Amino acid sequence: MRIAICTDHGGIELKMALVEYIKNLGYDLVDFGTDSEESVDYPDYVEKVGKAIQDQEVEKGIVICGSGVGVCITANKMKGVYAAICHDIYSAAQGVEHDNMNVLCLGGRVIGVELGKSLVKGFLEARFVGHDPGNERHLRRVSKVRKIEEEEMN
Ligand code: RB5
């Protein structure tokens, strides 16, 4: 699976650790930066991850800033991008399984490296269950989200 990652200056340390971790897990990773502690604007980086998802170059994305809030707001402005801040492992996996989340948002000043790795693992290993027999309710709910998205973004 191909994954994209980015951060602003608020998440450099976490991103560096996650890049190595994700590659070691065997995923194909596209790193959109930033790579220094020089102050940058997170929307410029999130947009690259969002576009990679929209263009189906990657399946999932991980976006990091100091709190996780700015990157999350930005990512959710992009059509076809479903992003959430998850600071617990249950939500990082269930957000994919039930809500078809395709972008995980993390706060580099909030989440330690080891928890960050566990969150990423849960997120990457999870898959949307809405097409499985008995789970149609999740597809129905996601379809309603998409309908709102269509109405709001067109
Ligand atoms: C940068 O200082 C900080 O504002 C940014 O990383 C993020 O926390 C915004 O949500």
Task: Provide a descriptive summary of the structure in words.
The chain is of the alpha/beta class and 154 residues long. It has a single domain, classed as Ribose 5-phosphate Isomerase B, Chain: A (3-Layer(aba) Sandwich), CATH 3.40.1400. 49% of the residues lie in helices and 16% in strands. The protein contains six helices and five strands, in the order βαβαβαβαβαα. A five-stranded parallel beta sheet has the order 2-1-3-5-4, sandwiched between helices. The longest helix has 18 residues. It is globular, with a radius of gyration of 15 Å. The mean pLDDT is 97. The protein binds D-ribose. D-ribose binds next to α3.
What's the topology here?
Blueprint: E1 2-7, H1 12-24, E2 28-31, H2 42-54, E3 60-65, H3 69-75, E4 83-85, H4 89-99, E5 103-107, H5 113-125, H6 136-153
Parallel strand pairs: 1-2, 1-3, 3-5, 4-5
Bound molecules: D-ribose.
Brief sketch in words of this structure:
This protein is α/β, with parallel strands linked by helices and 154 residues long.
